[in-house]
Amino acid sequence: MSSVDFASLGISAPVLKAVQQLGYEQPSPVQEASIPILLEGKNLLGTAQTGTGKTAAFALPFLSKLDEKQKTPQVLVLTPTRELAIQVAEAFQSYAKHIKGFHVLPIYGGADIGGQLRGLKRGAQVVVGTPGRMLDHLRRRSLDLSQIKGLILDEADEMLRMGFIDDVETILAKTPPECQRTLFSATMPPAIKRVADKYLGDAEVVSIENKTKTVERIAQSHLMVKGHQKMDALTRILDVEQFDGMIIFVRTKSSTLEIAEKLEARGFSSAALNGDLTQTVRERTINRLKKGQLDIVVATDVAARGLDVERISHVINYDVPYDNESYVHRIGRTGRAGREGKAIMFVTQKETRMLRSIEKSTRQPISSFNLPSNEEVSGQRVEQFKEQLVGMCKSTKLDKFHSLVKEVAAEHDIDMTLLAAALAFEAQKERPLFPKMVAIDTPRASNKDRSNDRKPRERNERNDRSDRSERQRPDRAPKAARDKAPMTDNEGNDVAMITYRIEVGRNDDVSPKNIVGAIANEAQIDAQFIGHIKLHDNHSTVDLPEGMPKELFDHLYKVRVCQKPLKISVDNGTAGEQRDAKPAFKGKRDKPAFKGKPKAHRGSDSEPRKPRKRPATDR
């Protein structure tokens, strides 16, 4: 273990203060070797694998040399992807939190160029971006490189692989000759070596071998899951896995708050950790985690950098990281001090390629994770409940309560066992011992998928387009493939039911009564004919009678609940066919399910209406 600390490396006081507040204790080998070289103003050619701390290795020294008076760009960072550009920009921002007037600007394709133009006009000392968009700004003359003092090429071999090397050379040629240049690459192919020889000259060479011992101590697995089912899958895992402390990694700051709140509502001790929190709150959260007062932290990559808590036994990658280095950083939060760790990553079908890239980078296969079954979840909850009861009997004075229960049993002639069962039923309502859990599809990547993902990706994209078109084209009432179990009308006739999907859910603060009220009022359907309603995070399902007229379907598609349109469609996930039930709308009925034409209302776009002022919302 090196005895060098960040203070001895010579970085500036504001940068050192930020580093210490982030919890960094000792520099990694690449940081220890690179920072002094870059502080001296020398060019650097670095060969380092992912997970070695390259971002801080170049960000800390260049921030230490910033001229606070100069508002034009002083440092330029080229990255192969926009995701990495965002991450590097966030890292610069966190390291420069105590530098007055500091601004960093990420620029990349696929984003509004107007906002980038305004950002460059206001002034930014550090610009991070992809080669293509950098060239675009150079052509527009919106990016001025005349006073650039430092240029960093991050993951140069990846830029070569993606075909950006010519763009990179064009940008290098436009920087001042005296500009200090740094190149980091995991490998050193001939094309990268040629660029280094041409533009970096007699650069200092730093070569760091990636040690995978930390990764090897961690049991890694992945779970193929649909995006909207992640929270249900996470809840099952938390119910069954025996963990001490846990970090759940997400991509955005807003997700940390959202997921932490949902976990708290489900009875788990959790808190968010992101860059918007004050240092006091951050330190308090970490201390609570260390002391066992908190079990789960939901964090972003930058917020968790340098976090070292020995009791972290599990890391959940709720969102797949944007790059392989982040994955290594994330799972490195567990398996500390020689202990075993466990890392589980949620992967959607479209992220299979990212999974294989991580496997290749870490040189380790990431096995499939078996999602706990309903029986396993129930069994675990029952065992915990038993332990809680036994512990309470041993540690709590229950004399008065014992007398009370005996009195109730005697007064009402109730068996004590039955009375205890009633108390157990009442106690488990918030966290049912025998839950009816949502079915979760966990498709696994086949060997064919894992060897060549082009065909599966194309097929999935076609299916996605087909599914979207079903929901987005209300030009006719859809025909269901299967009806739900029939309900009965006033004459005892079976009314065949169909499950529909609507695009409002828990995240919109919707409740079943909101859905019933909207459909009953707008569709003129008796509430008795509105069947089972199931709420999910981003959507809901509702059972309605078969035979919905086209004009009613068109109308319901536009009806709003909680200020969001229903966008009703057949829920193909539960559709099938049942021919025994009679259609609901043949012949006369005292109370037909659908009563004539749909009702015009202010929340629908089906009828012209006078414009009205709406309250401002965040939606």
Automatic annotation (TrEMBL):
Coiled coil residues, start to end: none
Transmembrane segments: none
This protein's UniProt keywords: ATP-binding, Cytoplasm, Helicase, Hydrolase, Nucleotide-binding, RNA-binding, Stress response
Principal place of residence: cytoplasm
Region annotation Disordered: where it falls in the sequence: 436-492, 573-619
Domain DEAD-box RNA helicase Q per the UniProt entry, residue ranges: 4-32
Ranges spanned by the short sequence motif Q motif, renumbered to the chain: 4-32
InterPro entries assigned to the protein according to its UniProt record, in alphabetical order: CsdA_RRM, DbpA/CsdA_RNA-bd_dom, DEAD/DEAH_box_helicase_dom, DEAD/DEAH_RhlB, DEAD_box_RNA_helicases, DeaD_dimer, DEAD_helicase_DeaD, Helicase_ATP-bd
Biased composition (Basic and acidic residues): 446-486, 602-619
Domain of life assignment: Bacteria
GO molecular function, one term: RNA helicase activity
Domain Helicase ATP-binding residues, every copy: 35-206
Record-annotated Helicase C-terminal domain positions: 233-377
Gene3D superfamilies hit by this protein: 3.30.70.330, P-loop containing nucleotide triphosphate hydrolases (3.40.50.300)
UniProt catalytic activity: ATP + H2O = ADP + phosphate + H(+)
Name of the top EC class for this enzyme: hydrolase
Composition skew (Basic residues), residue ranges: 585-601
One GO cellular component term noted in the UniProt record for this chain: ribosome
Compartments, record wording: Cytoplasm
GO biological process terms, semicolon-separated: cellular response to cold; ribosomal large subunit assembly; RNA catabolic process
PANTHER family (alphabetical): ATP-DEPENDENT RNA HELICASE DEAD, DEAD-BOX ATP-DEPENDENT RNA HELICASE 47, MITOCHONDRIAL
Family the entry assigns: Belongs to the DEAD box helicase family. DeaD/CsdA subfamily.
Function: DEAD-box RNA helicase involved in various cellular processes at low temperature, including ribosome biogenesis, mRNA degradation and translation initiation.
Listed name of the protein: ATP-dependent RNA helicase DeaD
The organism of origin for this protein: gamma proteobacterium HTCC2207
